[in-house]
Amino acid sequence: MIAILLVLTLLLMNAQAFAQEDPEPDNGELPGSDEVGDLPAGTEAEGETTEQDEKARELYLVGRDLYEAGRYQAALEVFEEAHKLSPRPLLLLSLASTYERVGRYEDALTALRQYEPHAEEDKRSVLDKRIQGLEERLAKIESAAAKPETTEKPIVEPAPAPLPAEGTDLAIWGWTVGGVGLAMGITGGVLVALGESDHVLAKDDAQKLTPQAYQQLVDDGDMKKTTGFIVAGVGGAALITGIVLLVLDDDEADTTPQAGLIPTNDGALMTLTGRF
């Protein structure tokens, strides 16, 4: 509205010069959707020009310039204001063309139908074609809006089966348990060897040692040997378990290895028989 008042101010500065010009005559053609036509001065019935008619005509000229410059929304606002001041039928053609430009097809169709009773006989065929074209366009829009949107569910491919791991759980456990068992067996053997060393030392230094020191050295040796046997026994069992797990994991093994632990006077002897 502010833009319209500014335009009116500029136009009123040249109102005297405009009033002296001859009004543009009607070109006798029905404007298409790409043109707005012309608006003659004076009323259709009496040929007289009122103050509102003059303002409406000034607004119309501004709207026409905006339309030709491609500023359709601004032109539409000016044409609507002009039609409020002077609701001449010819302004309906300008409104219809501008409504089409901004995508308001229902309003464009309404404007053309309002103009239809005032159309001249030789222009009715052109008007009817425009009305028919708008009706067909609106029908297509309504048909497209009525169709439900079909959203196809994407085909989900099944996830590929995971590749088998290079080593199975049995193999992992076999190596782990077997490694721990081997380490315990070595630790037990070392403890047994240390205990035996204490016994030898006690025998060699029996004359030099006090009875208490001698007995303490013998007891230490016995403790080391006993602990060594226990640790070695548990380690041997763990080692055997690990070997069994590895054999069970190997499908190509022909026979199951057999392992055993034979106690001796100096320690323990572990036996392992089988085919790998």
Which terms summarize this structure?
rod-shaped, Serine Threonine Protein Phosphatase 5, Tetratricopeptide repeat, 276 residues, 9 helices, two-stranded antiparallel ribbon, 62% helix
Fold and architecture overview:
There is one protein chain. Strands 1-2 form a two-stranded antiparallel sheet. The two termini are 98 Å apart. The chain is rod-shaped and about 150 Å long. It has two domains: 2-138, Tetratricopeptide repeat domain (Serine Threonine Protein Phosphatase 5, Tetratricopeptide repeat, Alpha Horseshoe); 169-273. Mean pLDDT is 75; it is low at 6-30 and 41-47. The chain is mostly helical and 276 residues long. The chain contains nine helices and two strands. It has helices at 2-13, 15-20, 51-68, 72-85, 89-101, 105-115, 124-146, 169-204, 211-249; strands at residues 258-264, 267-273. Helix 6 packs antiparallel against helix 7 and helix 8 (169-204) runs antiparallel to helix 9.
Lay out the secondary structure.
Layout: H1 2-13, H2 15-20, H3 51-68, H4 72-85, H5 89-101, H6 105-115, H7 124-146, H8 169-204, H9 211-249, E1 258-264, E2 267-273
Antiparallel strand pairs: 1-2
Helix pairs in contact: 1-3, 3-4, 4-5, 5-6, 6-7, 8-9
